[in-house]
Structure formats: structure tokens, C-alpha cells
Design goal:
The complex is a heterodimer of chains A (about 120) and B (about 425). With about 120 residues, chain A is of the alpha+beta class. Helices cover about 20% and strands about 35% of the residues of chain A. In chain A, the strands form two sheets. Chain A has a four-stranded antiparallel β-sheet with strand order 2-5-1-6, covered by helices on one side. In chain A, a hairpin with a 5-residue loop joins strand 3 and strand 4. The longest helix of chain A has 13 residues. The termini of chain A are close together. Chain B has four domains: about 100 residues; about 80 residues, no CATH class; about 100 residues, no CATH class; about 80 residues, Serine Threonine Protein Phosphatase 5, Tetratricopeptide repeat (Alpha Horseshoe). In chain B, helix 10 runs parallel beside helix 12. Chain B has 21 helices and no strands. The longest helix of chain B is centred in the N-terminal third of the chain and has 27 residues. In chain B, about 65% of the residues lie in helices and about 0% in strands. Chain B is mostly helical and about 425 residues long. The chains are: A alpha+beta (about 120), B mainly alpha (about 425). At the A-B interface, helix 2 of A face loops of B.
């Protein structure tokens, strides 16, 4: 079963990057996910200052604004999609993720399966 | 169970079998088919079939095995009919199960007990806290959704939705049916115990509503704790929780007066305490406290045991109770425990010392809306003869108290410290 791990950063530094996790931690985690054979996909998102939000109103009008919502406390910094047997296994991998430490958090969402 | 062919006997036997076997049956089916909804449906179909057959043919010698075999057949039939389940049918090889002969008559004792898995699933931390107790009562105690709704004073439709949502999450997020490994157990077991204890306390002192005790819920919690104790005999905190429940529940008859009013520990007629239940609870305390560092339920059981063993308030071992609250405070720091410790200190060292401790807790956020806090202060102020302050504290408690019997008790106490007359509240 596929789960998406949404990695939220709590504390953001001046450039919109996550403040608390070292590069080595992430490399080790990434290697562990790959070695376990559960990796489906994953990306790290560029700094928040580069984000742009698009909304389309009822009239079809396109509204483009800078950034995600103003005053956002937690910022999506990246994600993994992993394929593991059940939620407990997904929660274990989420707990090992460096992004779950400090003020960060990882939200675990099952990927909808429309094939069943 | 022996054959019971008589009509009245059959009815009773059928009912007790269903109560006892439901959780076990459901757990086996969930373990087998991995689908709680399917398991619940075929379990009730099997029970319906039993209601038709047993009164005619008598209760089978191994009712549990009969129910399981019947339910499994119904599950296989259903899976066959249902195209959406076709893939799963193949995966589970339930065909083989269908072809297999019914379990031999002596299989009942060997029926695998998979209820422990179900306990952990129902109390899974990924489920909302308010759904865990409901799901546990439904799946393991065999209560219907309307019964669970009534127990928690929630409208049946709201409870049904709560349960449906929780089951949807179990199914779609794939919360597993498994007992956590030895390395995870210390982190997961407290969640299961918490669910049982909150069912118990909900039944024991209803947080709202006219009745002080909802005994049925407390009895269900006890029944579940006994099952868990059998399933995890080596876990000291399970012994502690069951012991605590027994030692508290033993006082149930003395806790409510003839008018339904609350009777505090100090005023209870200890002859009305259930000695058999106390003995059973006391026997569990050593198991809960030996073989390792104590857990919070074991310590609370030990405190309850000291109360239950005492002939009255004066001969209660208060120094030991104060010490145990100190241990509990170190294990699970909480202002509510600090409040209880302060009340015990007042019994050991006098109201002045207790009041000083209580006043040091005044800033605690969690005590702000907790009526036992002003009620305890009022009691000590009263004992110190500081009646106007006591009256003010009783009024404060009255504004926060949940159940009507608790409020009636506080009104009674308030009356005793208030000067009589129509302008009583004005102060003197």
C-alpha cells in the first residue's frame, strides 16, 4: 500500500528553508528508504520564497499571488511516497524521517487506490 | 459448554454465549478476512442463524466453533457474490477454507484467541480518541451502536457516524490487526489501558447528566480488563489497571445515597463495600508492583487498596498514601495528582498543611475548570473555621460541577457553611 509522507517544517529560516535538519541526516534517511526497497517517489521542494499560488474564481478569472497563504506556520518542504504493508510500517518510516524532529512534523496520507 | 435443550435454559445460554463469544468471533474473522465490516456482518448473520437453530436443536457443544464455522461460510458466500471482493478471494484462498471440513467438536478450546490484535487496533493512536472507546465497546464487548451511544450520552446518529469514520480509517489507511512487537509494546500498551480506564471512569462518574454512576459502562470496562489480563498475564500494568478498577468499583453501592446523592469516601458505610471484589483486587496489587519499576495504574491500585483495607478515615495509612502519590507524581506528573496528594497531606498533617499545598497549585491551567479543586479547598477552609472563604470556594465548585448528584452534594456542603437567612450570599 502506498503512503505519502508530507514533510512539514515548523521553523523556517530567513530564506524559507527548514532550519533544523542537517544534510547528512537527510542523506542517511534517503539511503535507508532506497535500501529498504519501499521508495516510490519523493521530492524536496525549493524554498518557500519561490512559491506562487494560483486560484481560479467562479467567473474563470485567474488570480496569481506570491507564496502560499500568508502567515503559514508549517510549510511543506518535501515528500516521499513509499510502498509498505500497513499504516504501522508507514508510521515507523515517518518517525525515522529527520523532518519529524524538532518543530517539524510528517503527515502520513494513504494514496487513494481507484484500481480496486 | 454442555447441551442445554430446555427452552428457557437455551435462551439464557444463547444470550451468554453471544456476550462471551462475540468479541472472540469477531477477532477471528477480522484476522482471517482483514475486513472489520465484513467480519461484523457475517458475525451477526451467524448469530441470527444460531437464534434460529439453537432453540430447536439445542446449543451445540462447542458454540464458539459453531459460530465461527457458520460465519466463515457466510463470508465465503458473500465474497463469491461480490465482484469487488473477487481479487481478495483469490488472495486469501478462502476456497480452501470452504473446502476444509468443519472443525472437530473438540476444537473450541483451541480456537485461536485473536482478541488482543483487535484491542490494539481499536485503541490505535491513529484513530481519534473519542472513537477508540466506542470501537472497543462495539467490537470487543459486543455492544450495539445504539447501546454505545447511550453509554456515552451521544445521539445514536452521531455515534454511528463516529464508528463508521473510524472503521473507514482502519480500512482505507490500513491500520493493521496485529499485536505490537516486544519493542513497541511499552509504547502501545498504555493506549489500550487508557481506553479501558476511560470507559471505566466514564461509567463511574459520568462527566455530565443526572445519574452519578453509569454502572453498565464500568462493568463493561471491568469485563474487558479481565479479558486483557488473561491475554497479557505478564504485563504488570494490566494487573494494576484491573486491580484499580476492582478496588474502586467495590465501593459502588456505598458511593450513592438512598436519594441518589453522592456519598464521599469519608462518609461511606464501609459495610456496603463489596468484600469479594476487594479481595480480588488486593490479590492483583503484588503482581502489579513487583518485578520491575511500578507503573501508574499499579500505584493507583495500591492507593485504592490502602483505602479499601482501612476500617475508617482515621485509621487509614495516610503517610503511605502520601508517599504513593509522590511516586505517582514522579511517574506521571499532573496537577490532578498533585491535588490528590495535597488532600492526603491534609489528612496526615492537618488542614493547614494541605491548604498550603493546594494554594500553591492555584496557577495550574488544568485545575481551573476542575471542580474537585475548589471543593477540596472549601473542605479544608471549612475545617479551619474560615467559613466565608469556604462558602466562596463551594460556590466556585458548584459553578463547575458536572453531574446533578455532585452539585446536590456541593449545595448541601455550602448550606452548612453559609449563614442562614435570605441574604446569605452577602458575607459576614
Amino acid at each position: 500500500m502506498k503512503y505519502m509522507l508530507l514533510i512539514n517544517s515548523g521553523a523556517i529560516d530567513a530564506n524559507g528553508g527548514a532550519a533544523e535538519c542537517g544534510v547528512e541526516d537527510w542523506m542517511a534517511y534517503d539511503k535507508a528508504v532506497q535500501d529498504a526497497g519501499i521508495y516510490v517517489s519523493g521530492e524536496s521542494l525549493a524554498d518557500l520564497v519561490t512559491a506562487t499560488t494560483v486560484r481560479v474564481g467562479a467567473d474563470g478569472e485567474r488570480a496569481v499571488t506570491d507564496g502560499p497563504f500568508a502567515e503559514t506556520r508549517e510549510v511543506l518542504g518535501g515528500f516521499y511516497v513509499i510502498d509498505v504493508p500497513d499504516l504501522d510500517a508507514a508510521l515507523d518510516w515517518a518517525a525515522r524521517c529527520p523532518g519529524a524532529r524538532g518543530s517539524g512534523s510528517v503527515v502520513v496520507r494513504p494514496v487513494a487506490d481507484f484500481g480496486a | 459448554m454442555a447441551e442445554q435443550p430446555t427452552d428457557a435454559g437455551t435462551d439464557r445460554a444463547v444470550e451468554s454465549v453471544f456476550r462471551e463469544e462475540h468479541g472472540r468471533l469477531l477477532a477471528s474473522l477480522v484476522g482471517r478476512f482483514g475486513d472489520l465490516d465484513l467480519a461484523e456482518e457475517v458475525a451477526s448473520e451467524a448469530i441470527e442463524a444460531a437464534l434460529v437453530h439453537w432453540p430447536v436443536r439445542g446449543v451445540p457443544a462447542k458454540p464458539g466453533a459453531w459460530l465461527l464455522t457458520t460465519a466463515r461460510r457466510k463470508a465465503v458466500d458473500r465474497l463469491r457474490r461480490d465482484q469487488a471482493y473477487a481479487a481478495r478471494l483469490a488472495a486469501l484462498q478462502v476456497e480452501a477454507d470452504r473446502a476444509a471440513p468443519a472443525p472437530p467438536a473438540d476444537a473450541d478450546a483451541d480456537l485461536p484467541d485473536e482478541r488482543l490484535q483487535l484491542f490494539f487496533t481499536c485503541a490505535h493512536p491513529a484513530l481519534p480518541a473519542e472513537a477508540r472507546g466506542a470501537l472497543t465497546l462495539r467490537c470487543l464487548a459486543g455492544l450495539t451502536t445504539p447501546e454505545v451511544a447511550r453509554a456515552f450520552l451521544v445521539p445514536p446518529a452521531a455515534m454511528a457516524q463516529r464508528i463508521v469514520r473510524a472503521k473507514k480509517k482502519i480500512r482505507e489507511a490500513r491500520i493493521p490487526f496485529r499485536v505490537p512487537g516486544a519493542d513497541e509494546l511499552p509504547a502501545r500498551l498504555p493506549g489500550v489501558l487508557q481506553v479501558l480506564y476511560s470507559i471505566f471512569t466514564e461509567g463511574y462518574a459520568a462527566s455530565a447528566g443526572p445519574r452519578l454512576q453509569r454502572l453498565d459502562l464500568a462493568e463493561e470496562a471491568l469485563r474487558l480488563a479481565r479479558i486483557l489480563r488473561r491475554l497479557l498475564p505478564a504485563e504488570r500494568e494490566v494487573a494494576g489497571l484491573l486491580g484499580l478498577m476492582l478496588l474502586v468499583h467495590a465501593r459502588r453501592d456505598a458511593r450513592t445515597g438512598p436519594d441518589g446523592g453522592l456519598v464521599l469516601l469519608e462518609d461511606q458505610n464501609r459495610d456496603r463495600w463489596d468484600r469479594t471484589m476487594i479481595e480480588e483486587g488486593l490479590a492483583l496489587v503484588p503482581a502489579a508492583l513487583t518485578g520491575g519499576p511500578p507503573g501508574p495504574y499499579g500505584v493507583q491500585a495500591a492507593i485504592a487498596a490502602l483505602h479499601d483495607e482501612a476500617a475508617d478515615l482515621a485509621t487509614t495509612d495516610w503517610p503511605q498514601i502520601v508517599a504513593l502519590y509522590g511516586v505517582l507524581l514522579a511517574l506521571a506528573p499532573s496537577p490532578v495528582v498533585a491535588l490528590n496528594r495535597a488532600a492526603a497531606v491534609a489528612m496526615r498533617d492537618g488542614p493547614e498543611a494541605g491548604l498550603a499545598l493546594l494554594d500553591s497549585l492555584a496557577g495550574e491551567e488544568r485545575l481551573r475548570a476542575h471542580h474537585p479543586y475548589p471543593a477540596a479547598r472549601a473542605d479544608l477552609l471549612q475545617r479551619l473555621g474560615r467559613l466565608p472563604e469556604a462558602a466562596a470556594a463551594y460556590r466556585e465548585a458548584l459553578a463547575l460541577a458536572g453531574t446533578e448528584p455532585e452539585r446536590a452534594h456541593l449545595r448541601h456542603r455550602l448550606k452548612a457553611v453559609e449563614p442562614s437567612g435570605p441574604d446569605a450570599g452577602a458575607g459576614t
